Amino acid sequence: MKILVCISNVPDTTTKVKFKEGDSLFDDSGVQWIINPWDELALTRAMELKEDAGNSVNEICVIHVGGASADATLRKALAIGADKAVRIDACPADAYHVAGQIAEYLKENPFDIILSGIESSDYNGSSVGAMIAEFMDYPGISSVTSVNLDDDDIQINRAIPGGKQVLKTEAPFVAVVQKGIATEPRIPSMRGIMMARKKPLEVKPAVELEVLTESIKFELPQEKGACKMIDSESAEQLVELLKNEAKVL
Amino acid sequence: MSVIAFAKNWNGKFKNSTFELVSYTKALANQLNTNMVVLSIGEVAEEELKLLGNYGADKVLTVSNPQLNTLTSRAYADIVAKAANSVEAEVIVLSDNNSGKAIAPRVSVKLKAGHVAAVQELPLSLDPFVVKKSVFSGKAFGHIQIKSDKKILTIAKNCFGLVANPCDVAIEEFALDIDTNLFKVKIIQEEEQKDKVILSDADIVVSAGRGMRSPENWTPVEELAEVLGAATACSRPVSDEGWRGHEEHVGQTGKVIAPNLYIAAGISGAIQHVAGISRSKCIVAINTDPEAPIFSVADYGIVGDVMDVLPRLTKALRNSKS
Hints:
The structure holds 2 protein chains of 2 kinds.
Chain A (H helix, E strand, L loop, with lengths): L1 E5 L2 E3 L7 E2 L4 E2 L6 E3 L1 H15 L7 E7 L5 H10 L3 E6 L5 H14 L4 E5 L10 H9 L3 E11 L2 E8 L2 E7 L3 E5 L12 H7 L4 E5 L7 E7 L8 E3 L4 H10 L5
Parallel strand pairs in A: 1-6, 1-8, 6-7, 7-13, 8-12, 9-12
Antiparallel strand pairs in A: 2-5, 3-4, 9-10, 10-11
Helix pairs in contact in A: 2-5, 3-4
Chain B lengths: L1 E6 L8 H17 L2 E7 L4 H6 L7 E5 L9 H14 L2 E7 L2 H14 L2 E6 L5 E2 L2 E7 L4 E7 L4 E5 L14 E4 L12 E7 L11 E5 L10 H10 L2 E4 L1 H5 L20 E5 L5 H7 L4 E6 L12 E4 L2 H16 L1
Parallel strand pairs in B: 1-2, 1-4, 2-3, 3-10, 4-9, 5-9, 12-13, 12-14, 14-15, 15-16
Antiparallel strand pairs in B: 6-7, 7-8
Helix pairs in contact in B: 3-4, 5-8
């Protein structure tokens, strides 16, 4: 079995976001770039599946749509343990554009399992995984919290509001994964970092695709007013304020 | 031309978020000077469908096939796209929840309709068509132009509210052949907690962090949640330590929520946590550290030990009720 993990290259989660050029562009000066947290968990789960000898997973490939600045992030994915990385050389315009590029690659290079994080922590489009499934006409499963393999038997847990479902599906399929898919992301080992240098990082040209949406401007949320402090002995006063001032009780 | 909303049901019932979706879509239809059609998939009783009329729906299409009672994103997307075509919808609107996130991207590909998720309000302009969405996990908003003729939006919970607009509802069965090839995912087991308030639906959330010091100390959190009819939640370190389940984690990499009231007990308020709660209408913070960053996003704050303050708050709420 071959697993493809879709990777977004995003600002570190502690980044204070700023914009430039009349608030039309994200200001990336001084920004630390990381593997999108959910994609990193997806890669970790893919590694666990490959390491379990009972499974027949023989290749993990990571794929990214973006410019050369993402190569460091892809090398990190290789250092964590992916066997191969592919970068589609295009400026990622929107989710439709990104998913379309990955689908074109999949048509030439089939995989059994495609894992995609629930959203990227930058533009929060939360669409790429399901769009790939549609472009490929594959089953797609959202809100996935575990993927288990027993030979060709694929069992998936999916979070539903207030509960979970256990599902079975056939390969190929796309799983859109969220927290729980792996406990903790792996940190690359020294050996992993050395080996990553020799692993293949293929750069593929992009295909021509329509761009359906465009970010034109950004704004920061309004600053909150001052926090009203209440004495720790005066719980009654807080209840009163929540009822009559904030009107939320 | 028209706009169409997909009204998801849960075991044959709609939620307030469904009525919010209908309210939003009706206002959008008015803005565009066109009609709204609401689509329902799966078996829903006529009385329940008629509730959609309270929020401005005058035409409901229903696909009341029992095979569709549980969400199959592939089949649902197929139906949404076909219904949108049949009513010549220019804009398709869904709720930004699990099902909306699963269906909308598929419909976007089917119809080549530009898709924007987590939309925060009515379009900022219609020509060009520009909507506002949250980006960088709640740290900012983006204005996104949709360039395609057809457009598909998922709207964020609590972004619009309910707008009463009573209408007589015409309910029509939307007849179509269902492709059985679209059902390759089989549900073999399902568990639902019936006794707890669901976090993503909750109007009030009581959330706790490492300030609770130990997983054995959660009783005051649960008691406060009970008296408020609230859902419980937690910060990332708490779920990472296994003190509480991952489904309770709110923040950038967990759930992003927007309740009316969010009570943060013993949570310092790291930037990633704040990203997940910043759209809450009112935030109460309780922390021993007066310098904790959570106070800079809170509306009301108490400096004190959660183990003392929470029981006092529970008692004050009980007294105010009786």
